């Protein structure tokens, strides 16, 4: 196939999914949702064909104009476009994609701050999927997003399940927008700053970290931690989404 104007496989970060159980799992997860589907990075269309069989409006995008042309001819009922996943409008209810590993973080950040999509099913590096789902402890990005989104780890994909084979395994990550946010959207900028201060702050106890991050007296921080049911947690990474929200409600009122 001719080389894309955007570069070859290495520049585009193309590792095509060949693992049939994962293709089936993604299709099942998407089938449980409703509404229009946007596929990011459709490549040769292996997943696109499965999604198209669901009989729902489907837009598939890819940077490689040659693959897009071939897929348009093969799937005339699917809207296939040359587009950049880091810029294309997130204008469908469901976002699906085998995300190029080198742009995983910018795409995730964009998803969690743009668009009105309701469900996302993403294939990323294993460690990224694991961290976003909070396995082994939460991360800054996940904690900042948790009041508005729920994350779940839906499977591990062996490196040999891609062609060409990457150096790491993949992970299947599902993200759902909460119907009832734990924190008002109007608080998001201040909440983000509070969470960042918590993750970058120091202290001999969680209450000490809260006191420094929220700039409140130690007594108020201890009461906030107790009210949030977080007395047994030692580090910000140990907090559950509901505890983050409860902490924020306590310190923002103060």
DSSP strand tally:
9
CA-to-CA gap between the ends? 62 Å
Give the H and E element order: HEHEHEHEEHEHHEEEHHHH
Q: Which percent bin holds the helix content?
A: 25-40%
Strand content range: 15-25%
Q: What is the CATH topology of the largest domain?
A: Rossmann fold
- Total count of helical runs of at least 4 residues: 11
Protein name: Methyltransferase domain-containing protein
Pfam family, one: RrnaAD
InterPro entries: KsgA/Erm (IPR001737), rRNA_Ade_methylase_Trfase_N (IPR020598), SAM-dependent_MTases_sf (IPR029063)
Binding site for S-adenosyl-L-methionine: 15, 17, 41, 62, 84, 98
Describe the protein.
There is one protein chain. The chain is built from 11 helices and 9 strands. The chain is α/β, with parallel strands linked by helices and 254 residues long. The chain folds into 2 domains: 9-177, 3-Layer(aba) Sandwich (Rossmann fold); 185-253. It has a 7-stranded mixed sheet with strand order 4-3-2-5-6-9-7. Helix 3 (46-52) links the parallel strand 2 and strand 3 (58-62). Helix 2 (20-31) runs parallel beside helix 3 (46-52) and helix 8 (188-200) crosses helix 9 (206-214). The longest helix has 13 residues, at 188-200. 39% of the residues are buried.
List keywords for this structure.
single chain; 2 domains; transferase; elongated; 254 residues; 18% strand; alpha/beta; Rossmann fold; 9 strands; 11 helices; seven-stranded mixed beta sheet
């Amino acid at each position: 196939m001719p080389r894309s104007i955007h570069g070859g496989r290495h520049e585009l970060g193309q590792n095509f999914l060949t693992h049939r159980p994962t293709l089936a799992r993604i299709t099942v997860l998407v089938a449980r949702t409703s509404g229009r589907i946007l596929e990011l990075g459709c490549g040769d269309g292996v997943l696109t064909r499965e999604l198209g069989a669901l009989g729902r409006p489907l837009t598939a995008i890819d940077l490689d104009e040659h693959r897009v042309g071939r897929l348009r001819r093969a799937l005339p009922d699917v809207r296939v476009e040359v587009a950049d996943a880091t810029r294309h409008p997130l204008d469908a209810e469901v976002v699906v994609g085998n995300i190029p590993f080198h742009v995983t973080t910018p795409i995730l950040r964009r998803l969690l701050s743009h668009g009105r999509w309701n469900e996302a099913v993403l294939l990323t590096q294993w460690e990224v999927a694991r961290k976003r789902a909070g396995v082994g402890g939460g991360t800054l990005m996940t904690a900042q997003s948790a009041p508005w989104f729920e994350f779940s780890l839906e499977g591990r994909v062996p490196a040999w399940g891609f062609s060409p084979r990457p150096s790491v395994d993949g992970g299947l990550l599902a993200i759902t927008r909460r119907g009832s946010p734990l924190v008002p959207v109007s608080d998001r900028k201040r909440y983000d700053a509070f969470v960042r201060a918590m993750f970058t702050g120091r202290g001999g106890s969680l209450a000490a970290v809260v006191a420094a991050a929220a700039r409140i007296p130690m007594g108020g921080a201890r009461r906030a931690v107790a009210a949030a049911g977080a007395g047994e947690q030692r580090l910000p990474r140990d907090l559950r989404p509901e505890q983050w929200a409860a902490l924020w409600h306590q310190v923002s009122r103060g």
